[in-house]
Structures are given as C-alpha cells and as structure tokens.
Design brief:
The complex is a heterodimer of chains A (249) and B (322). Chain A has 249 residues and is mainly α. With 322 residues, chain B is of the alpha/beta class. Helices cover 36% and strands 28% of the residues of chain B. The chains are: A mainly alpha (249), B alpha/beta (322). Chains A and B meet through helix 1 and helix 7 of A and helix 2 and helix 3 of B.
Chain lengths: 249, 322
C-alpha cells in the first residue's frame, strides 16, 4: 500500500515536472534566478573584493530573490488547475488530496533545487580561489533549499485560495515578507510598546532569518530543521484544508 | 453499481440539489436530463467524489464514497463538463499520466493507453500537444482518459458536447457498446441522444427529480401520447369529427388540416385510471364501417421534448415560479 502511495505521488510529480519543462516556466525561472543571483553576488555583494573563501556574499541574497521568484512559480500550482478545470480531473482520480498536494509541491521544489544546483560554478570559483569549509557551504545550500521549500509551501497555500494567479502571487509575497521580517527590530518595535512580551516573542519566533543565518554559518540546528519542516507541512496541510473547503464550483 | 440516496447540496443559501435518489445497475445507461442549472453537473460531481454532498449517501459498487472514497473512485471513469485536459501535454503524455494516477504502470499502462487511443480514434494526433488540437479531439482525449482502466462505472457530463455529427455518432455507438457491461450515467441536452443510447432517463429540475423511467415510458406521459392521427377522403370534416368524438375512450377530435388530399383529424384519448386507451383499432373500425378512404392512420407514441417541457421550468420563467 505504501508503494502505491509513493507511486501516486510520483505520478503527479512527474506530470507536473513535465508541465514545467514543456512550458517556459522552468526555463524563465532558472535563467532569471541565475542572472539575478550572479548580479547581486558579484556586482552588489562585491564577491571578489571581500576576500572571503565562502558563500556568504552569494547566499545572503537568496531570501530576497526567493521572495519574488518562488511565489511566481508557486502561484500557478492550484490556481491554474482550478481555472482549467483539471482540478476536477485530478481530485476525482483514486488519489488522496494529500498525495496530489505532495506530488505538485515536490515537482516545483525540484525545479527550484535544479536552479540552485546550477549555481555550482560559484562553488568551483570559491574552491579554486581559496580553501573554504565544505561543510559550511553544504549547510548554506541546505538552508537556501529549505527556505525555497518554505516559501513554495506558502505559495501553494495561497494558490489554493484563489483562481486568480495575481491575487495568489501578492498574498504569498506578503506572507513570505512577514516571515522574512518578523524578527527584524522595526517590526518587533511596532509591537513592543503595546503588545505583551509573549506576543512580541511569538511573532519574532516566526522569522525564517535566524534559522537561515545559522545554516549559513554552518550550524545545523535540529530546531532550525524542525522549523522549516513544520512550516512546510503546516502550509501544505492548510492547502489541503482550503482545497477541500473550496470545492464548491 | 451506483446508488444515490437523498442527495442534498447547498451552496451557501442556494439549494442546488434537493433530495435526489436513484440507482443505476450494471448494463444500464442512465440519461440525466434537465435545463441548465438544474443540478445535473452538481449531482455528477457528488457521484465522483469531487463535491461532498451536504447530506445523503452515495455508494459505488458497494463502497461508500464517504468512508471508502479511494476504492469507490477507483471504479469510476469520469468525463467532467467541458472535458478539461492539461493543455501543455501531449495526448499520449496525458493519457500516460491518467493511467499512472489510476495505478497502471509499465506494460499495463502502455497497453491501456494504446487501447483507448484506438477506441477514441486518437491515432493521428497522439503526439500532438493538446492545446493545438481541435475541440473535438480535445474532448475525445478527455473521454479516452476516463476509459483507461476499463471502469465498471462511467459518469459522463455531456459526452457529445462540441462534437460534429460524425463524432457524435461514433461516441454514441461507443457508449451503447460499453453500456452492455457497465453502469453508465450521462447528462445531455440532446433528447434524441436519450433515445439513441439510454435505457432509462431521469429528469431533474431546480434540484428536484421530477421523472424517472425508460424513454418510452416518459414519452407515453407526454400530452400527445396515444393521440390518433388520421387522414380521410370522403366525409365532411364536421361529420367525421363528430363520429370520431363519439368513439368509446375518445376525449376530443379536432380537425388539424384540410386540403385537397383530404382532411387530417387528431383524436385524443380520454385517460381513465391514469391510463390512456389505445384508440387505433376503434378508429380503424369506424373508418371501415363508414367506407371512408383513409391513407394515413397513426397512433402517436408521444414526444420526449414535449414531456421535458411539461415537467421543467424554463429559466426565463424561473424567477416568477421559483
């Protein structure tokens, strides 16, 4: 039975991957991601002038790049299916909603992972020019991948809310921005004067940044991993709830 | 195979389906009729597990949709309204996906895909991208999808919508052929289709089931059913009408047309105990006894469209009545 479950997820994932690569979505995403990552790393981040043997100047931009690029990939996940009517086809197949959600999510995540993997020249550059800590680099990449996954899961959730892709894009950018800025002093400062301390801390705890920073420094913290995984699972679970609730037309 | 029991569906404050019950057995093709917005598609979406009913139960092949949804859905092939397909995929790619989602992999999958490509005449376009196809082919691709696993239950929402007359004919033949050993539900606006393929039909209007019977039974309930149409030469129109009206079981006889070829009269039966007497033999006997010349005598079977109009409310009038 677990074999047939995995197969079901794989069937959906495979179809979805095919969809990314037969349409321009995957290519546009990958190219734009690589161009922007290069621009920020070398031109803005002054990668060479830093004289560091590490990926700091490169990875630091990822939360901001993903903020716009990931919702652009994720907004179509459910909105498009709903609009084309294929949602009806997909959800009446003998699959669970969960298998469909997971399959679609994994496919999109694989596209993001591919884009990330294609930044390998920078790793080669760093290794050629200096003697970096390979473990820290691997951690940095892991952090970037998890962050992309978290944003993607949020986009999946907002995509299930509306058949309008623009609405779902904006919603997910806003939620991701909140996750990005939640621990930032100006945001907590807005609350600190009137809200109780537990609320301020609670809001700050939503932030992805501390966990992302830790991974960039090479600190693999089980709480950090738990944070990302639970964020992803929560957003995907909510996707399921919304899909079930919105099967009205 | 299919049993729907007092299905109710509310959309917010709007009642879309109101206590609809029916069953479909193996070997039956059930036609689902009703005006636009009557609740046909909603009912079909509930049968396939897409929409949960507000109340009521559905069982497919003995599996309750609510408790055992996967097993129930595995038995069903579904052609949704407007035949949605993934536009960026190729026909074969799409069918492969549909097969895999239904648990057919490897050789089994390839065999199933080849089989439906043949049954649905998709061979010439099998490698094309779906968005480049004509509406008819796109529709047939979606139809092919629902036949992949050779399901014992088929639910088809307007299976011949958007097809040209030749394609319609092919699809109807296909449905009739499959109807022998499957339980099929199809919705349609085309009443001739009901005659062509359905062994039974139900009519639903404003969410309510208003009729359920074989096409012949439904026709027999239309106003013109049992009327005798007779064309005579010889007698004066008035005389003939009076004589026909006097027949036992006749309620009325009116002159429909008068021409050089003769006069055409319509004799309506007088329903007794809900049944309409067959006036044919009595009219024939009268014609013979009076030595009139008769070149046409027909007992009307009734007409489905007449019955349909009588039991449903057109949407232009819905406001006042509903």
């Amino acid at each position: 039975m677990s074999c047939s479950r995995t197969r079901n997820v794989w069937a959906v994932c495979k179809r979805e991957l095919g969809g990314y690569f037969t349409s321009p979505v995957a290519y546009v995403f990958i190219i734009i991601f690589l161009v922007l990552a290069g621009f920020f790393t070398f031109n803005v981040g002054a990668f060479f002038a830093r004289g560091e043997a590490g990926l700091g100047a490169f990875l630091i931009w990822h939360p901001w790049l993903y903020l716009f690029l990931v919702p652009a990939v994720g907004m179509r996940l459910w909105a498009e299916e709903r609009k084309a009517g294929t949602l009806e086809l997909l959800l009446t197949m003998p699959l669970t909603t969960w298998q469909a959600i997971l399959g679609k999510f994994l496919a999109a995540w694989l596209v993001l992972a591919l884009a990330l993997a294609l930044t390998f020249p920078i790793v080669i550059t760093v290794c050629t020019l200096g003697d970096p800590d390979k473990g820290v680099m691997a951690c940095g990449y892991l952090g970037s991948l998890l962050l992309a996954g978290a944003y993607l899961a949020v986009s999946s959730m907002t995509s299930a809310m509306s058949r309008n892709q623009v609405v779902s894009f904006i919603l997910s950018v806003v939620i991701c921005l909140f996750l990005l800025l939640a621990g930032w002093p100006p945001v907590t400062g807005m609350l600190v004067n009137w809200a109780p301390a537990w609320l301020v801390d609670g809001v700050a705890a939503f932030s992805v940044m501390p966990w992302f920073d830790n991974l960039q420094k090479g600190v693999v913290d089980s709480r950090g991993l738990l944070y990302f995984l639970s964020l992803i699972l929560f957003a995907l679970f909510t996707t399921g709830v919304i899909l079930r609730g919105r099967r009205t037309n | 195979m299919i049993a729907a029991n007092t299905l109710v569906k509310w959309f917010g404050a709007k009642l879309a389906v109101d206590a609809v019950s029916f069953t479909v057995a193996k070997g039956e093709v059930l036609g689902f009729l009703g005006p636009n917005g009557a609740g046909k598609s909603t009912t079909m979406r509930m049968l396939t597990g897409y929409l949960p009913p507000t109340s009521g139960t559905i069982s497919i092949g003995g599996h309750h949709l609510e408790d055992d949804g996967l097993a129930a859905r595995a038995l069903v092939g579904y052609l949704p309204e407007n035949a949605p397909v993934y536009p960026e995929m190729s026909v074969t790619g799409f069918l492969r996906f549909a097969a895999e989602a239904r648990g057919l992999w490897g050789k089994e999958r390839n065999l199933a895909v080849e089989r439906v490509i043949e049954t649905c005449f998709l061979e010439p376009i099998r490698r094309q991208t779906i968005e480049t196809l004509s509406k008819g082919y796109r529709h047939r691709t979606c139809l092919a999808q629902c036949l992949l696993h050779d399901p014992p239950v088929l639910v088809m929402d307007e299976p011949t919508d958007g097809l040209d007359p030749n394609q319609k004919h092919e699809v109807r033949n296909l449905i009739r052929r499959m109807g022998a050993d499957k339980a099929i539900i199809l919705s349609t606006h085309i009443l001739e289709e009901v005659d062509a393929v359905c062994s039974r039909a139900i009519v639903i209007d404003r969410g309510r089931l208003v009729a359920n019977g074989t096409p012949a039974e439904l026709r027999a309930r239309s106003a013109s059913a049992g009327q005798v149409r007779v064309r005579l030469q010889g007698p004066a129109a008035k005389e003939a009408a009076a004589a026909l009206r006097a027949l036992d079981g006749a309620a009325a006889a009116v002159v429909d047309a008068e021409s050089a070829a003769g006069i055409t009269l319509i004799v309506s039966p007088d329903p007794r105990d809900g049944r309409r007497p067959n006036l044919g033999p009595a009219v024939a006997a009268l014609v013979a006894a009076r030595h009139w010349t008769c070149d046409e005598l027909r007992v009307e079977e009734g007409r489905l469209d007449e019955f349909f109009r009588a039991v449903t409310v057109p949407d232009t009038k819905r406001e006042e009545k509903g």
